[in-house]
Amino acid sequence: MVNDGTFYFDEKLVNMREQQGPLATTSSVVRGLTAFSSVITESLNLTGDKILGIAKFFLGIGIPGDTKNFFDQVDSLACLENNRVSIPLILSLPSTVISLTKKDSLKVKVNTVLGSHAPPLTVTLVRAFSSSARDNSIIENQELKFDPQDAVYFLDDLPASFDVGEYIFVFKMLVQDSEQQTVYATGTLTQVPIYVTGLIKIENAKIAVLDSDLGSVETQKKLDLAGESTVSVSANHLQKLRLSFQMSTPLGNAFKPHQAFLRLRHETKVEHTFVVGSSGKKFEITLDFLGLVEKFFYLSGRYDIQLTVGDAVMENSLLRDIGYVELDLPEPPENASRPPPQPVDPYTRYGPKAEITHIFRAPEKRPPQELSLAFLVLTILPLFGFIIGLLRLGVNLKNFPTSAVPATFAVIFHLGIAAVLLLYVLFWLKLDLFTTLKTLCFLGVFLMVVGHRTLSHLASASAKLKSA
Amino acid sequence: MARSTGKDAQALFHSLRSAYAATPTTLKIIDLYVGFAVFTALIQVVYMAIVGSFPFNSFLSGVLSCVGTAVLAVCLRIQVNKDNKEFKDLPPERAFADFVLCNLVLHLVIMNFLG
């Protein structure tokens, strides 16, 4: 038996291969029990609590993952629906939240395990107490009325002393027909947690900037927390910021919400969160900037103020930007801690980066083309001067050999030199060094042979002249 | 004193001219060649002075080709000159062949450096 009212069987670990979980074990027990009870004539001595516990176990496990477990669950519930021992009746609430503003009424349904109608019952709300004050029960022994159209039992008006908060309601069911009381298993008491929600009054909200030493109010502005308006204040590090407001339940009692935070967010997205303290109905937080200068990383500028007040039973929870404060903090000293780096938007970090355009080296200033051409002409001029000078000197071409073989050699010699020079020009224009050198080898060898022939011929001719 | 130096310079110049006329033609040709090469080099330097030395390697190769070929011509002149006792046994054709070969090598290097 487990504490939440469920009851199940589990198997001892006898054989690892054939192990079944509690679901399979309990369902086989149920099948056997209901099959057995349907064939015997006497009734089995079994308390209704146990049957109800088994029914709650099957209903409480949700929807099992695999098909065999699901079959076991549904099959067992079908066996329990109409068995001869006792049929369990389940009490459920369509909604466990009652709103005071909408004036909801408490509704309760009673069905069999597979959802069929139950016989006429008397459903009584035995006790209702706040979960924080269990001894003090607000309602006692209130019978619920039956609505035959929706087949629900309801309680019309909750007493006026019901404030917002968490409550526990305790129900009891009784079959009206006394003969059928053994046929159905209703259990003893059922506990259900209920939330009663309502609008919380927030009033007297104000924000003030105080002078630190004297505590005198420098600026004070009223806040309209229900509306959309924002305020703006400014402060320096010698002052304090105080935010205060009052909260009360619809019945006028003090209310402590689950969350009451004040958050200051800087332009650079650095945030600081503070808890708003309370005493009774009054909520107040004072930020002493003198002590917070280091916590704020010495960042001056505009801070957005965001107030968060929320609770499960508060229908008007708020999370609102109520304005901004211009904060003037001193300069950070050398060893001040830097604010933590804020998370970067991942799309900007991994997205395409700015395009880099290559800036080519600015080309050197070249002279104008006409000037270059003029100097080209000027440079060629000395060559002509040379040739003219040669002519004036009366250079003789007489020694040019006239007979056939030496003449050819002489001509080929001059042609060879011209060819080498032409090769050099080609080399400058488009050839590379390797091809040039290769060609030069051949030409050079050729030229040397021819040149040797020519010059030796010339030398012998002049030697003959000398000797003669 | 200045007048006498002026007159001396003129006399010196005249004697130089008359002596030069006696040199053989071959040597005069070589001298002319040297003058032509140097003059070309000068023109290149003037050009560089005007427009700046942007492709410096080109400028160098141009000037060095002129200067190199002038130097080789001077060497040829020394070797060919009959009054030169050192190179008496060297046939002038051999010297000329050396001149041609060295020029070809020089111009290969120059063309490579020209860019």
Describe this entry's structure for a reader.
- The complex is a heterodimer of chains A (468) and B (115).
- With 468 residues, chain A is an alpha+beta fold.
- Chain A has four domains: 86 residues; 110 residues, Immunoglobulin-like, CATH 2.60.40; 135 residues, Immunoglobulin-like; 64 residues.
- Chain A has a five-stranded mixed sheet.
- In chain A, strand 15 and strand 16 form a beta hairpin.
- Chain A is elongated, with a radius of gyration of 53 Å.
- Chain B is mostly helical.
- Chain B has one domain.
- In chain B, helix 2 packs antiparallel against helix 3 and helix 3 packs antiparallel against helix 4.
- The relative contact order of chain B is 0.11.
- The mean pLDDT of chain B is 85.
- Classes of the chains: A alpha+beta (468), B mainly alpha (115).
Distance between the termini of chain A: 149 Å
Q: Structural class of the helix and strand makeup of chain A? A: alpha+beta
Q: State the share of residues found in helices of chain B, binned by percent.
A: over 70%
What is the radius of gyration of chain B?
19 Å
Distance between the termini of chain B: 55 Å
Number of strands of chain B: 0
Q: Stretches of chain B where pLDDT falls below 50 for ≥5 residues? A: none
Characterize the largest beta sheet of chain B: strand count, sense, and whether it forms a barrel: none
Approximate strand percentage of chain A: 25-35%
Keywords (chain A): Endoplasmic reticulum, Membrane, Signal, Transmembrane, Transmembrane helix
Main location (chain A): endoplasmic reticulum
Organism (chain A): Citrus sinensis (Sweet orange)
Pathway (chain A): Protein modification; protein glycosylation
What's the SSE blueprint?
The complex is a heterodimer of chains A (468) and B (115).
Chain A lengths: L21 H18 L8 H13 L6 H15 L5 E6 L4 E3 L6 E7 L8 E10 L2 E11 L1 E3 L4 E4 L9 E11 L8 E2 L4 E8 L3 E11 L5 E6 L8 E6 L2 E10 L10 E8 L4 E5 L1 E3 L2 E7 H4 L8 E10 L7 E11 L17 H5 L18 H25 L10 H26 L3 H35 L1
Parallel strand pairs in A: 1-9, 2-10, 13-20
Antiparallel strand pairs in A: 1-3, 3-7, 4-5, 4-8, 6-7, 8-10, 11-12, 11-14, 14-18, 15-16, 15-19, 17-18, 19-20
Helix pairs in contact in A: 1-3, 2-3, 7-8
Chain B lengths: L1 H20 L3 H27 L4 H25 L11 H23 L1
Helix pairs in contact in B: 2-3, 3-4
Membrane topology (chain A): Multi-pass membrane protein
Family (chain A): Belongs to the SWP1 family.
Protein name (chain A): Dolichyl-diphosphooligosaccharide--protein glycosyltransferase subunit 2
